[in-house]
Amino acid sequence: YRWPYYYTHNKESRAKSDLLAKVLAVQSDDIIEERDMNVALLSMEGLDAGFAHKIQRLMKNPDRTKIFTSLQYNASQMTSILRSLHFLITSRYHAGVLSLPKQVPQIAIGHDLRIRDLYADLGMSELFTDHEDPMRFWEISNDTGDVFSHYDAVKEKLKKGYETYLNRERLNPELLKVFLENTHPEWLD
């Protein structure tokens, strides 16, 4: 995944990215100033590191942030960091899933069907905002306020969602066995 082959951006997508960085910088400053919380900027993929640094540069309180990237931390360390958060704004499916065992209250903005489906499965579609929604930046702020206003209820919803995912996961060996019996029975010998 190296430039120029992947993740190249045209002028319009760069403008959208710059606007999102500004919005996330403002939201981060609001969390710092209104809730007296520090902010962790996580880049789950090395490609996200530049975006995290852009957000930090745009902030009024960059000294209250720390950037964690997958270039510096391994998967286990990033998972531990995710699970230690008090709140998560994500656009990455894996960040949402990996934080589930600790029921980290979260919202998402995204273009990925996986994270949209994750939030639907969790019964939290109202906390997912499509990246093309014209009200997306207002939604991020509104959803953040809603999570903090209903913090315990959101954690309970995440707990139930996590239990549902664990139950589904337990079915995987049997589903795989049935699939193999029907498609490649010779592989079971």
> Biggest sheet, open or closed, and with what strands and sense?
3 strands, parallel
- Principal-axes geometry comes out as globular
Number of helices: 7
What is the helical fraction, as a range of percent?
Answer: 55-70%
Task: Write out the strand line-up for the largest beta sheet, numbering strands in chain order.
Answer: 3-4-5
Work out the number of β strands: 5
Order of helices and strands: HEHEHEHEHEHH
What ranges have pLDDT less than 50 throughout 5 or more consecutive residues? 1-5
Based on helices, strands and strand pairing, what is the structural class?
mainly alpha
Q: Tell me the radius of gyration.
A: 19 Å
Q: What average pLDDT do the residues reach?
A: 92
- Tell me the strand percentage band: 5-15%
Q: How far is it from the N-terminal to the C-terminal residue, by CA? A: 39 Å
Any overview of this molecule?
- This protein has 189 residues and is mostly helical.
- It has helices at residues 11-35, 49-58, 75-83, 93-98, 113-121, 136-149, 151-183, and strands at residues 39-43, 65-69, 88-90, 106-110, 128-130.
- The strands form 2 sheets. A 3-stranded parallel sheet has the order 3-4-5, with helices on both faces.
- The radius of gyration is 19 Å and the shape is globular.
- The N and C termini lie far apart (39 Å).
Indicate the topology.
Blueprint: H1 11-35, E1 39-43, H2 49-58, E2 65-69, H3 75-83, E3 88-90, H4 93-98, E4 106-110, H5 113-121, E5 128-130, H6 136-149, H7 151-183
Parallel strand pairs: 1-2, 3-4, 4-5
Helix pairs in contact: 1-2
